[in-house]
Specification:
By secondary structure, the protein is an alpha+beta fold. It contains 12 helices and 10 strands. β8 (about 365-370) and β9 form a beta hairpin. The N and C termini lie far apart (about 60 Å).
Amino acid sequence: MDLVLNAIKSVAYIFIDPLFVIFLIAMSFVFYVKNKKLAFMQRMIIGENINSPLELTLSQITLGIIAGFLASILISILGITFKEGSGVELIFSLTILSIFFRGRAIKLPYLAFIFGALSIVFTYFKIGGSDINLFRINITSLIALIGVIYILKGFLIIFDGSKGSMAVFSKKEEKIIGGYVLSRNWMLPVAIFIALKLSGDSATTSDVINTPSWWPLLNSSSILELIKVSVLVMVPFFTLINYSATTFTKTKKEKSRLSGIYTILYGIIIILISILTKFGLAMEVLAIVLTPIIYEFIFRFERKMEDKREPIFFSDDAGICVLDVIPFSRGYNVGIKAGDKIIRLNGNKVLNEKEIYASITNNYISVELELIDLCGNNKKVIFKKGKMPGILLVPKSIDENKKINLTKEKILEMIKKLKNK
């Protein structure tokens, strides 16, 4: 219980330290700006915001903090420990760059490989002398830390990954298909054990953590030796994790749920691999090499499965497909869901999406739609008089004469016109 309370206390420190508070506010502002742009793009595509920028930002910050508390508790129970000044804080700092730049090098599995390789070289070749801890990161703790963060990331994707999605269209086999681009970022305050050298002023009595006899669960000799000659304190850091995916074969909630499961699976595998590092240098090298390789394998497998599956959002002679529904809109309230196919309008066969929009937008009389859902069930809904329907339909076809070749300048011009309206 003391371990859990210390983890919670250490993470809670971010709310009283001025620098942490300022950083959290600054990142919240960055999230808000990105979410505002996303909401604007949603409005361009569907005519209304699916989620407000404030709602998206609050869920990112709140759920990120909750995940940070849970990650810190797992870290404390496992006994993930690093030497003071080993450079592990640089890994956390580099993850922050991922909100501004995209690249493999700043993803946690690759950072673990880079810093792990540096640590093995610096440790076993004694570069810099024995008194310098920089790039002497405990490999067992490093790999286990990645596993813990990815387990929590998986749950964040499951619960929050579908928010802030954007509808997109593509063409496959001369058929227009609809899908989603999912993109989310979360800021996690993570507290980890830092081992300070034993000295009279290394830590105050209130800083020192009492540990139970069964601890640590990561029963690695390198961690046990480090604990014997050190005083342990829990220090909080911020780390940024992000999620991005594209799907044309699943609903956005199904996609985020599947991605989350893959991510949790990766995290569990990595923690199991971290246990192997206690068997010596060869296993440490194998662990840091496998960390990015398994990451690539699992998520390339997910993308391959996505490519193999058939698209589910397309319109044809059977009916017009609903791609997205705005929460609490007219379409949502009458029971329309993404993936439903509108087959009849007031008892008549539907020809194209234009006549549906014309009938349910600013309509003064009730309109009956007959639909078939993704499971093949038929249902009827009635649109009473109202304005915006709150649904996005997949076009059956595109008039080639009305196609516009969009350049960057043309897009900026369109955005400027929309802002001025």
